[in-house]
Amino acid sequence: MKQKTLTNTMDYQELADVYEQLDKTTKNLEKRDIIADFLKRTPKSELANVILFLNGEIFPSVSEEVLGIADKMVLKALSKITGKNENAITNVWKEKGDLGLVAEQVVKKKTQTTLSQEKLTISYVMEILRAIARFEGENSTQKKTGSLAKLLSSAKPKEARYITRTALGDLRIGVGFGIIRDAIVKAFNVEKEHVQHAYDFRSDLSELVLLAKESGNKGLKNVDLKVGKPLRLMLYQKAQGISNGFTRVGAPAAIEYKYDGMRVQCHFKKGEVTLFTRRLDDVTKQFPDLVGALKEHVSCKECILEGEAVAYNSKTKEYVPFQILGKRIKRKHRIDEIAKKIPVVLYVFDMLYLEGKNLLLEPFKKRRAALERIVRKKAWQVELAKQVITGNEDKAQRFYNEALEKHQEGVMMKKLDAQYQPGSRVGFGVKVKPILEPLDLVITGAIWGEGKRGKWLSSYVLSCKKGDVLAEIGKMATGLSEEQFEEVTKRLEPLITKTSGKRVEVQPKLVVEVGYEEIQKSPTYSSGFALRFPRLIRFRDDKEEPDDLERIKRIYQDQKSLSQKQA
DNA sequence: CGTGTCTGCCC
DNA sequence: ATTCTGC
DNA sequence: GCAGAATGGGCAGACACG
Q: What is the CA radius of gyration of chain A?
């Protein structure tokens, strides 16, 4: 113990023990206490690493770097360690429902045959994982899996479990920012609201935890909104229809179109514009057209505003499906070319900062007014989100119908005097989307689950009828209670006709009613269509046959003709 | 050099 | 994105 | 009500492989 303090390092084993304790309890307060105790005894030099690791991260989320490892790469690494092929490892994976547990078993077996083991320190594990992230170019897959295999080989079984889960970006210990925040509060005797505040404006746990330890409340409070640094977005909960929406946000309320595009936070400073996504990634390079339009049509020196970027067809002036906008989001090459082909219009709806003044605590209607003052509307480039303010249900309903006719997702209903509240909170604003007519589809395959669904077939391949045969139209994995997962697994198991890896094919017996947001064209599924956000509505044991592809085509066409009515 | 696989990130 | 679950 | 877990389609980029 003394030596550790001297050298200012900490063994990864200690972290692995903490992970295991966290894994064992479902009680959030216990988790908080375990983490708080650990943070208190973590040397300052390891604190930044430890807090990231506790959150399952290798880089702070504000960093542009990513690890580039997921399940297939882990399989390769485990295959290297054991000398077994990936299929054999996959079979163990299927049984355990967790690659971390597979790695643990692999290392346990190996340890019996090897002797000396050096201790891994937290900073060493971090260093190796970050080095793995940085391999690129030819043979980088080899290098990545090789390094991971070596790291796992030098780990104790329990360490291997959590290193693997960290590499996969999924610790599965029931710890997220909420519990980490409360642990920081307890460990360093600071106020919850200040920790949350600092996180909302920086999203960097490493920076935050050091600040809490070194400067306490004062330091945390001083973290402020800074133009050019993205802040966490306000998120809206779902309401069941307009009437329910009014109940939730009060009447009158601001009602706006919910556009089907990409959320963008725009920062203006010294003539420069920076664009951030919902996850605070910088997409400025991807949208030079948007940057240009904003510079031209927004008059301010410094401001932060938010909007939804929607793709449209430049000739017909029709909105195009989200899939098309998707082509632009991760572009790195020929950006100008694609910008011409797939133009976007930004519908701005909120203003967070203007000329030195933080507007977050101002009521929404004032923020909107500020927005209206500085944005000069330019059709099909920068416009204000279409809005009405009303407390009248009929008027609101008509506005909602109009949004749907124009093929947008629905409406947002916003409390007029609500502040801008990062994250998701009750009472500030809601989204209202329609429930479309569901489809009856038959389960033709399934995939064994992970983690708490490890014992169940937990994702289901769905098919429709295409003449005399069946055609796949996607997968569904939500909308079921645990009881229903159990039941479906029991009913599907006897129907299995073929197994490959974690995937099975089953006789087409079980018909389910499936809800979704939209029917999309699919390059993946044999029906040529797929569902956006599929979920189980109910079982249709009264039915033996799924819907026909013709019905799906019809619904798809109806969607399209609706969208063509707009403009 | 074309195609398939994997990963991360939009929704 | 959606949905379910434990606290 | 909050936080966390587990899962959907599809896109571009990066790399492996033949």
A: 26
